[in-house]
Every structure is written in C-alpha cells, then in structure tokens.
Write a structure and sequence with these properties.
Layout lengths: L2 E5 L2 E4 L4 E8 L7 E7 L6 E6 L5 E3 L7 E6 L4 E6 L8 E8 L12 E2 L3 E6 L1
Parallel strand pairs: 2-11
Antiparallel strand pairs: 1-3, 3-8, 4-5, 4-9, 5-6, 7-8, 9-10, 9-11
C-alpha cells in the first residue's frame, strides 16, 4: 500500500510561515522525485515545488524565493517550508511522487496524498 500523508497545514496571517510535511510509505522513497502541488479556490492544481532524487529543486514563479523544499530520505519525508505567506497562497496542498524527472504535468505523477489545507488571512 502506497501512502503519502501530509500534515502541517492550518491558518496563518499574511507574512507568516508554515512547514508542511509528507510522510511516504510503500515506495522506494530515495529513488522518487517528490513534489508539492497546490489547488487554490477556482484554479487548476499546479506544481509549486519539487525535488528530485538527486536533490535538484524547482519552484513555481509565484513562490520562488519564499518556499523551500527538502527531503529526508532516512525518514521517508519531504517538507515544504513556506515563508512570507500571502493570501494567494491559500489552497489545498498535495504531496506527490513519481519515478522520473520533475514535471509540471499533473498526469505524470504516480502517487498522491490526500491534501492539507493552508489558509492565509489578510
């Protein structure tokens, strides 16, 4: 059974910070590219940050410089450190894994978590 379990979401004021965690099981974590995807109200789900099995990272333009993605292979966990949060960061954040390179195409990701809500107030 593959499981990706997100945690760390919540309500935060603009300018604040949150750290999301995603604990993975049932996959060879160290060989997978991991990503965080966001679905904001009324918008399509989009990749906001990803980290390859070698540690290469990519960020959406809207979060670059504010978000950091990292992984701890010993804990089978990927993190998203979010700082200087803005109201437009509000949405459901999903953890995903794939056996390939970083991709913005949602359909290429193999496994998905259930999502965690992040709400940023003005």
């Amino acid at each position: 059974q593959v499981q990706l379990v997100e945690s760390g979401g919540g309500l935060v004021q603009a300018g604040g910070s949150l750290r999301l965690s995603c604990a993975a099981s049932g996959i060879i974590f160290s060989t997978n590219t991991m990503g965080w995807h966001r679905q904001a109200p009324g918008k399509q789900r989009e990749l906001v940050a990803a980290i390859s099995n070698r540690g290469s990272t990519n960020f959406a333009d809207s979060v670059r410089g504010r978000f950091t993605i990292s992984r701890d292979n010993a804990k089978n966990t990927v993190y998203l450190q979010m700082t200087n949060l803005k109201p437009e960061d509000t949405g459901v954040y999903y953890c995903a894994a794939r056996r390939g390179i970083i991709s913005t195409a949602q359909s290429l990701w193999d496994y998905w978590g259930q999502g965690t809500q992040v709400t940023v107030s003005s």
